[in-house]
Amino acid sequence: MEAGRMQTITMRQAADYIDQTVIIKAWVTNKRSSGKIAFLQLRDGSAYFQAIVVKADVSEETFALAKGLNQETSVKVVGKIQADTRSALGYELLVQDIEVIGESHDYPITPKEHGTDFLMDHRHLWLRSSKQHAIMQIRNEIIRATYEFMNQEGLIKVDPPILTGSAPEGTTELFHTKYFDEDAFLSQSGQLYLEAAAMAFGKVFSFGPTFRAEKSKTRRHLIEFWMMEVELAFVEHEENLQFQERYVAHLVRNVIDHCGLALKTLNRDVAVLEQYTKLPYPRISYTDAIKLLNDNGFDDIQWGDDFGSPHETFIASQYDRPIFIVNYPKAIKPFYMRINEEDPRTVLCADMIAPEGYGEVIGGSERIVDFETLDENIKAYNLDPSAYAWYLDLRKYGAVPHSGFGLGLERAVAWLSGIEHIRETSPFPRLLNRIYP
Ligand code: 4AD
Ligand code: MG
């Protein structure tokens, strides 16, 4: 480093620059001032922090400029980093000089309360708030820790296509599009392609956008969401569950260890999250779960029905960590799941249900290996056999038991962040009736 040359830093790096004079580029989120001192709340993308302008220490112009700064003005600030035990970050900036980079006038999101529709209409600006910043940091950490875990476990990332001709999760929720003269869909899940890749490379994963034209307007549903999918050759049902619980515990551990400030901003109780790192996660069969519900006054559900969110919430509330509900009825699950020989009405599948009402975060299963069974299912589920010929091929040439699962990124983010609604977990969520901004 050149002597005498001032360093431009981000506020996250403040600990390495105590008592040094630095340059920080930031936006003004708020300010208050008296005759002698101005407190600027700044955001530089790495953190939210306070800058203090003392009238006696700066030029008259600088103090006047500081007092007149509007919300969201961008600034270049020169100042000295000092420890500040009162702030969450632990550091503040004692200002020497300020230069305006870009002016801001009448910023629509003010510190007062705004309604959800207003905020969603201004999502492109709402992202600047400290809560949104915290949620995106947790999302980023889950993505980072996912790649870390998958690489540690020796999986290869395989990217399935987004434009497809198959419908792994049923035909009712497909987004149709034209593929030149052919009909095509936006991918609901990369699973079928991952199965082909698992037969080539053994252990594979994918992480990308998926689309569901679901007419659901709930706190758990997005139209476009990111799914992390895994497919493991030679792995049967129970080993699949063990992989999932180790993966989810790894995500929780890393969010706790690397997102302390974000969790604090969100008022997320870390002791509660610690509980979710404890393995194993309990397994409860679908059949026992129905009995549990019926024994506890839920008479709106019987064997064969799918769970609604009140049911999932109640079942999960019996435990202190995520659970697996295993072996659902074949009739309410997709065509590719392997039959459970111990109760052939059911399949070898599991949904991981998160605690605290967050519901299903993972859906997975062991897959059908036998050619005839799969062929019959494709017809029985009214799927177009010609679109699945390649998928059936996988059962002809050295087929092996294999299993996999998909984790919904945004559901995991909502759960670990402890926020009410999934819409805040995506930077620009696609919701029923909303594609703006
Ligand atoms: O349970 P799903 O539909 O499973 C599959 O798509 C399998 N093919 C995955 C596999 O085995 N490779 O979806 C998996 C997860 C759900 O558990 C949920 O977390 C999330 O994806 N998900 C959604 N997230 C947000 N909005 C939606 N509309 C979602 N639908 C599913
Ligand atoms: Mg599911």
Please outline what is shown here.
Homodimer. This protein is of the alpha+beta class and 437 residues long.
Write up this protein.
With 437 residues, this protein is of the alpha+beta class. The protein has 2 domains: 11-102, Nucleic acid-binding proteins (OB fold (Dihydrolipoamide Acetyltransferase, E2P)); 123-424, Bira Bifunctional Protein, Domain 2 (BirA Bifunctional Protein, domain 2, 2-Layer Sandwich), CATH 3.30.930.10. The chain is built from 13 helices and 17 strands. It has helices at residues 60-67, 116-121, 123-126, 130-152, 191-201, 237-258, 260-265, 270-275, 286-295, 309-316, 371-380, 389-393, 409-417; strands at residues 7-8, 21-33, 37-43, 48-54, 74-83, 91-102, 156-157, 163-164, 176-179, 182-186, 203-211, 224-233, 283-285, 323-326, 349-354, 359-366, 402-408. Strands 7-11-12-17-16-15-14-13 form an 8-stranded mixed sheet. Strand 15 and strand 16 form a beta hairpin. Helix 4 (130-152) packs across helix 6 (237-258) and helix 4 (130-152) crosses helix 13 (409-417). The protein is elongated, with a radius of gyration of 26 Å. The two termini are 43 Å apart. Bound molecules: 4-amino-1,4-dioxobutan-2-aminium adenosine-5'-monophosphate and magnesium ion. The site of magnesium ion (MG) has 3 residues, from strand 16.
Topology:
Blueprint: E1 7-8, E2 21-33, E3 37-43, E4 48-54, H1 60-67, E5 74-83, E6 91-102, H2 116-121, H3 123-126, H4 130-152, E7 156-157, E8 163-164, E9 176-179, E10 182-186, H5 191-201, E11 203-211, E12 224-233, H6 237-258, H7 260-265, H8 270-275, E13 283-285, H9 286-295, H10 309-316, E14 323-326, E15 349-354, E16 359-366, H11 371-380, H12 389-393, E17 402-408, H13 409-417
Parallel strand pairs: 1-2, 4-6, 7-11, 13-14
Antiparallel strand pairs: 2-3, 2-5, 3-4, 5-6, 8-10, 9-10, 11-12, 12-17, 14-15, 15-16, 16-17
Helix pairs in contact: 4-6, 4-13
